[in-house]
Design a protein that fits this description.
The structure holds two protein chains of two kinds. By secondary structure, chain A is an all-alpha fold. Chain A has helices spanning 8-16, 18-50, 54-60, 71-79, 82-113, 116-131, 134-147, 154-178, 183-190, 195-223, 227-232, 241-248, 257-287. Chain A has 13 helices and no strands. Chain A is globular, with a radius of gyration of 25 Å. Chain B is α+β, with helices and mostly antiparallel strands. Chain B has eight helices and 20 strands. In chain B, strand 16 (306-318) and strand 17 (322-328) form a beta hairpin. The chains are: A mainly alpha, B alpha+beta. Bound molecules: adenosine-5'-triphosphate and magnesium ion.
């Protein structure tokens, strides 16, 4: 028996469940291993293939590279402007994420705090806007951007990205603000804050987990966006990373697997790094509710 | 000097009139309790003073200035919310400093004030903690600290004690009262607990369904309730209301309870009774402590202003200090409060003495006091 000084509610259930939970842990563990394998194996393949030579990739198909070579990377940086494209993708994604977070959190705040009767409608419309597939919008967008002289510019690309990141951001941030009680802001207003101070100093810090998850979501969407850059951009200097990868498939006939795998690795690493750094916040953001 | 004035203040939420014709004055330095049943508009009225709700009709004056169009920060009021509304991402110290930061006070001055408030409320050891690591009572204290650092003209409290357990509530009650004596600032305190209002306030405002029912000192409300609602709301156990009529019987005025035998009204008591025409329905209101047992009442003045009724005991409740007896009177049940102990049991038939000089008469139709 537990001694009375110990918090009984923390210890007892655990002990009673020990046996069944052992069996369950094994099952869960097995499932996780399987899932990890399914997720990680292609990743492993990509990274190892990028440091194999042509024979090992295409003919011998070794699992573990016998001979490590960085020729693919050297070729990649010499033959393509992948660094430029990476830089383009990075700054566009960062910029769009930043603008989305600022605009979406402010709009979402207004939707949850002021326009309550109509907010439901506006929010729903923004969700529908997000759900309209890009392929439907691409022609009107192209025409519109051409009239504005923004085809083949990053500005045009950024505008087109915002057309789907903003609705998504508003929707996510609204869910986040809905979980934050108004009374703290009211207290702040009585304490002498104006609306902006109440928003930036009181509401936003509490919404931080939601901001982080929204930012990651938006950033990944931008990073992997393919359709808009392929249609709107035609000069090599302005391309994004997805187009580089596409070009390396050589239209499907003469695929340079080594180069492609090296390029894929280069394209994936930044995203992975971001995930690793922000993982803690992301989990907290999802746990904080509003998204379930 | 008068600090806060309500001039026929009203408020609508959509089509519902939530507050109507609120008129009263709060003198400077006074501790006022706003009291009423749930949903009567207490919080709404408080929020209108703070500037969190628009004043739809009438004006509210603070320190002689109409504040209808003033932003909350220009009204110089501080508010303690029911759920405390502490800023969760700030420490106790930062919570208290926030308002000074908004007022662009210097760092040194802010820190002095914060320490002063922390000292008054005994928060010195908690300054680095976050609200989620505080107990209910500590949070309550931080919320008050946040209000007092500013040294505002008016303090507003919205049911600050309702989330505390019974013991802590009694303790904080005394603490708030002491704080008021120390600071001397005007306080408006919302509660739906009449004991809180009676024990803490110097002036009580009773609201019902968005209207002011009565304004007065706690004892005025207790001794001269203006209508049946106030009579029933203030005091515990509640006042007995016996329905009946006043009739002349062989030259003497008698109170005739519904389905009961006439009780002669001693001359010189119940000034309102003579104004009631014969046959007009009304209520005789008498507090449980103004009913006694013959021979038991130490203040008995020889029976001059007493009336007698006989009733059967239904229930006996003993608190240790008092004995509450519920007895079946002709028109429903009555509660009797006896100071000290008294040995009786359900089924006993006793004769009770009603102290008519402390009784009230209310019109059955309007509920208004008659005298
Ligand atoms: N934002 C609002 N929109 C619509 N009606 C409201 C709103 N706020 C309050 N009300 C209504 O106004 C009335 C008074 O509300 P209020 O919160 O002032 O009551 P209260 O006296 O503080 O009650 P309680 O003791 O339960 O706190 C209630 O009937 C309530 O339904
Ligand atoms: Mg309330």
């Amino acid at each position: 028996m537990t001694s009375p000084s110990r918090p009984a509610h923390k210890r007892l259930p655990r002990r009673n469940r020990r046996k069944t939970s052992a069996i369950r842990s094994v099952t869960v563990f097995g499932g996780v291993v399987l899932l990890l394998f399914l997720v990680l194996f292609p990743f492993y393949w990509m990274v190892t293939a990028s440091i194999k030579n042509f024979r090992e990739i295409s003919i011998e198909r070794t699992l573990v590279p016998r001979e490590v070579t960085f020729k693919n990377y050297v070729d990649l940086f010499e033959q393509t402007s992948i660094l430029w494209h990476l830089f383009n993708t990075a700054w566009i994604s960062c910029f769009v994420t930043f603008v989305t977070i600022i605009l979406a959190s402010m709009s979402a705040y207004v939707l949850t705090r002021f326009l309550t009767p109509t907010a439901e409608w506006i929010a729903r419309i923004s969700l529908y806007a997000y759900m309209v597939p890009s392929i439907v919008l691409i022609i009107p967008f192209y025409i519109g951007l051409r009239m504005a002289g923004l085809v083949n510019t990053h500005a045009g690309l950024i505008l087109s990205y915002l057309s789907f990141t903003l609705p998504l951001g508003i929707w996510m941030m609204r869910a986040c603000f809905q979980t934050i009680p108004k009374t703290m802001e009211e207290a702040a207003v009585v304490d002498g804050a104006n609306r902006f101070e109440a928003f930036f100093l009181i509401a936003m810090p509490q919404a931080l987990p939601g901001v982080v998850s929204t930012a990651i979501f938006v950033f990944i969407l931008c990073w992997g966006e393919y359709l808009y850059p392929v249609v709107l951009i035609n000069s090599d200097r302005l391309r994004t990373i997805t187009i580089t990868l596409d070009a390396l498939t050589g239209g499907g006939q003469n695929i340079k697997f080594g180069l492609l795998m090296a390029a894929s690795t280069v394209a994936t690493v930044p995203i992975l790094l971001i995930f690793l750094v922000l993982q803690k916040h992301l989990v907290r953001g999802f746990a904080a509710g509003g998204y379930e | 000097m008068v600090q806060v004035v309500f001039n026929s203040v009203g408020k609508d939420f959509g089509r519902d009139a939530v507050l109507r014709d609120i008129e009263f004055e709060v003198p400077a330095g006074r501790f006022v309790a706003l009291i009423g049943p749930s949903g009567c508009g207490k919080s709404t009225l408080l929020r209108m003073i703070a500037g969190l709700e628009h004043i739809d009709y009438g004006e509210i004056y603070i320190d002689g200035k109409a504040v209808n169009d003033l932003a909350p920060k220009d009204r110089d009021v501080a508010m303690v919310f029911q759920n405390y509304a502490l800023y969760p991402h700030m420490t106790v110290a930062e919570n208290m400093l926030f308002t000074l930061r908004m007022a662009r006070r210097t760092r040194a001055e802010s820190n002095d004030r914060m320490w002063e408030a922390a000292r008054i409320l005994g928060l010195e050891s908690l300054l680095d903690r976050y609200p989620r690591h505080l107990s209910g009572g500590q949070r309550q204290r931080v919320a008050m600290g946040r209000a007092i650092v500013r040294n505002p003209k008016v303090f507003l409290f919205d049911e600050p004690l309702s989330n505390l357990d019974a013991k802590l509530r009694v303790q904080m009650r005394a603490e708030i009262k002491r704080l008021h004596q120390r600071l001397g600032t005007t306080m408006i305190f919302v509660t739906h607990d009449q004991v809180e209002a009676m024990t803490m306030a110097e002036q009580v405002v009773i609201l019902r369904e968005g209207r002011v029912e009565q304004v007065g000192t706690p004892l005025e409300l207790y001794d001269r309730p203006t209508n049946i609602f106030v009579a029933g709301f203030i005091g515990s156990p509640t006042m007995n209301l016996i329905g009946g009529t006043f009739e002349q019987d062989r030259g003497r005025l008698c109170f005739v309870p519904r389905n009961g035998t006439p009780i002669p009204v001693p001359p010189g008591t119940l000034p309102g009774a003579s104004k009631v025409g014969p046959g007009r329905e009304c209520f005789l209101g008498i507090r449980p402590e103004h009913i006694s047992l013959p021979g038991l009442d130490p203040n008995s003045d020889g029976g001059g202003s007493f009336g007698e009724i006989s009733a059967e005991v239904v229930l006996v409740e003993v608190t240790g200090l008092d004995t509450h007896i519920v007895a079946s009177a002709p028109d429903g049940e009555i509660t009797i409060l006896i100071r000290g102990r008294f040995d009786t049991a359900a089924g006993d038939r006793l004769s009770f003495r009603l102290n008519f000089s402390a009784a009230h008469v209310f019109d059955a139709e309007t509920g208004e006091r008659l005298d």
